[in-house]
Amino acid sequence: MHMWGPKAGWAKYKLRLRRRRLLLRAFRKKHEIKSVVSRIKQIRNEDVLAFVTLRNEIDRLPEFLDHHRKLGIAHFLIVDNASTDGSVAYLRDQSDVSLWQTDHSYRLSRFGLDWLTWLMIRHGHGHWCLTLDADEIFIYPNWKTRSLAALTDWLDRSGNRSFGALMLDLYPKGPLNDTDQRHLTSAFEHLCWYDCGNYTIEKKRHRTTSGFKGGGSGKRIFFTRPTQGTHFKQNTTRKMGPPLCIFELHPCDFAAHAEPHLWRKR
């Protein structure tokens, strides 16, 4: 007797329950973020959106915004977690940014995901949505010549609802203390070193996506056994979901959710 069918059905049911639980968390956390400036009316149906949580990232923001604008991000929905370095004033002046602010716990909001999930529920349905931190740069094959719109069009035609990616740690040549990030003109110019191996990937039997489980410099430096450095609970590189994914609201559970990545709203 084949047990795969019942097991798969049970796995899908558990995923739906988890999705509803995450929705309830986001619903409870929605009052923790307050709007600073809203330009939501600028968003068009075909726009690719970026959702970001940050704190004191003024040194990285110019390159971060410029890079993702060039890829094709049309609007940034950003939650500032009590920055004190001028990030709020800078973001308020950006014509393609809608900004919220909070002084509540980043950790207790699932590291900002509860806040971003609520914003996706409100504004992301039907859009491809990219979730990032301000110290992350999203790239993909042929990113210098092919826009995000070309990528998402290809994903749509292929029937793919997400785009997996690896979190790759970049660092400069030589001691880290010798590099002053405040004076870097480009992360790609100065942070051009990385570990090219030692990464692992996990395929869930009843899921359609795979997850990278870390590795690279963190695993090489801090962990020596093969089983170490592969899970977030072991205090190392976090487990990654697809960075590009589709976001949709479903009548059965009111909302969908995923780990930081790119989603599509229909």
Concise structural overview:
This protein has 266 residues and is of the alpha/beta class. The chain has seven helices and ten strands.
Radius of gyration: 19 Å
Number of strands: 10
Q: In percent, how helical is the residue content?
A: 25-40%
CATH-derived architecture of the largest domain: Alpha-Beta Complex
What would you call the structural class?
Answer: alpha/beta
**Which sequence of strands runs across the widest sheet?**
1-4-3-2-5-10
Most strands sheet: 6 strands, mixed
Domains, number? 2
Pick out the low-confidence regions.
228-240, 251-260
SS element count, helices: 7
Head-to-tail CA distance between termini: 39 Å
Portion in strands: 15-25%
Q: What is the approximate shape? A: globular
Please name the CATH topology of the largest domain.
Spore Coat Polysaccharide Biosynthesis Protein SpsA, Chain A
Topology order in helix (H) and strand (E) letters: HEEHEHEHEHEHEEHEE
User: Overall pLDDT, averaged?
Assistant: 79
Per CATH, the class of the largest domain reads Alpha Beta
Features:
10 strands; six-stranded mixed β-sheet; 2 domains; 266 residues; alpha/beta
Task: Describe what you observe in this structure.
This protein has 2 domains: 1-165 and 241-266, Spore Coat Polysaccharide Biosynthesis Protein SpsA, Chain A (Alpha-Beta Complex); 167-240, no CATH class. Mean pLDDT is 79; it is low at 228-240 and 251-260. It has helices at residues 4-29, 61-71, 87-92, 113-123, 148-158, 187-190, 216-222, and strands at residues 34-37, 48-54, 73-81, 97-102, 128-133, 162-163, 201-203, 210-212, 244-246, 262-263. The chain contains 7 helices and 10 strands. Strands 1-4-3-2-5-10 form a 6-stranded mixed beta sheet, sandwiched between helices. The protein has 266 residues and is α/β, with parallel strands linked by helices.
